[in-house]
UniProtKB/TrEMBL annotation:
This is EAL domain-containing protein. It comes from Terrihabitans rhizophilus. Residues 1-249 form the EAL domain. The chain holds residues 430 to 678 of 688 of the full protein. The lineage of its organism: Bacteria, Pseudomonadati, Pseudomonadota, Alphaproteobacteria, Hyphomicrobiales. Coiled coil: none annotated.
Length: 249
């Protein structure tokens, strides 16, 4: 496939970029961290990760791509204040083959940052299969001090029982429940229930997809402590992070 060959070449040429979207502490207004989001500037216009991540997964390129993003994100984070974290998305395949723990350790060591600065975002599909291999890898990473976040929470198959099999540090409420929150009382009830679940289980809750002041006001009324979304900023290149940190609050 054309895209697969292009992607392989782009990776080899380090033409793949990692951009950063801030996560805000809603109590203080400070930026608590950034989510790393991979970007591929392409001659015929940017190709979205929604399009090329599946191609990378089918072709096996996801391992090289995943390692590249991890190393780049840790290296960029090494330039930020030490209380600002970096979150990296992982594909389920990165748990199936290769040595994810060694890859992560090596990225942290090369950047010289502590494991406490790194969050790894995984999706429900990964933990639903409950393989011992996956659970052991997650426990090892967590034991190192890395945070494990459940991304896109509430989509997918959402069997809550996996919250018992694995102690997540953070749940990210999928943006489908957050965007236009003020207009949808069902979404409000769902967000309230997830916040309550997080409180009871000792899991931090982040709301994704905050696009308007009204969404934000709703979240604050419900007691949500962290949020992310276009209202605050879209993902931007590493060179824009310093300005985002200065302009916050
Ligand atoms: O940034 P954007 O909304 O275009 O991302 C689209 C999708 O691609 C999201 O589901 C996001 O989680 C995923 N994605 C972005 N960057 C990465 C990455 O580095 N690795 C993986 N596995 N997925 C990513
Ligand atoms: O699956 P994941 O949550 O990792 O995907 C993150 C994606 O969501 C990124 O591609 C990012 O660009 C996108 N995103 C982040 N904030 C918003 C927002 O406020 N609105 C919308 N529509 N998309 C967002
Ligand atoms: Mn994510
Ligand atoms: Na998400």
């Amino acid at each position: 496939r054309r895209l697969e060959l292009d992607l392989r070449a782009a990776l080899a040429a380090e033409a793949i970029e990692v951009h950063y979207q801030p996560l805000l502490n809603l109590r203080t207004g400070a930026i608590s961290g950034f989510e790393a989001l991979v970007r591929w500037p392409h001659a015929e216009g940017d190709v979205s990760p929604g399009e090329f991540i599946p191609i990378a997964e089918e072709s096996g390129l996801i391992y090289a791509l995943g390692t590249y993003v991890l190393r780049r994100a840790c290296r960029d984070a090494s330039q930020w204040p030490s209380d600002v974290k970096v979150a990296v998305n992982l594909s389920a395949l990165q748990f199936r083959h290769g040595d994810l723990v060694a890859t992560v350790q090596s990225a942290l060591a090369a950047a010289g940052i502590s494991p406490q600065r790194l969050d790894l975002e995984i999706t429900e599909a990964l933990v639903l299969d409950r393989s011992e291999r996956v659970l052991n890898t997650l426990r090892t990473l967590r034991g190192m001090g890395i945070g494990i976040s459940m991304d896109d929470f509430g989509t997918g198959y959402s069997s809550l029982s996996y919250l018992r099999s694995f102690p997540f540090d953070k749940i990210k409420i999928d943006r489908s429940f957050v965007t236009n929150l003020n207009e949808n009382t069902d979404s409000q009830a769902i967000v309230r229930a997830i916040l309550s679940l997080g409180n009871s289980l000792g899991i931090a809750i982040t709301a994704e997809g905050v696009e308007t002041e009204l969404d934000l006001a709703c979240l604050q009324a419900e007691g949500c402590l962290e949020a992310q979304g276009f209202l605050f900023a879209k993902a931007q290149p590493a060179s824009a992070v310093a300005a985002m940190l200065l302009g916050e609050g």
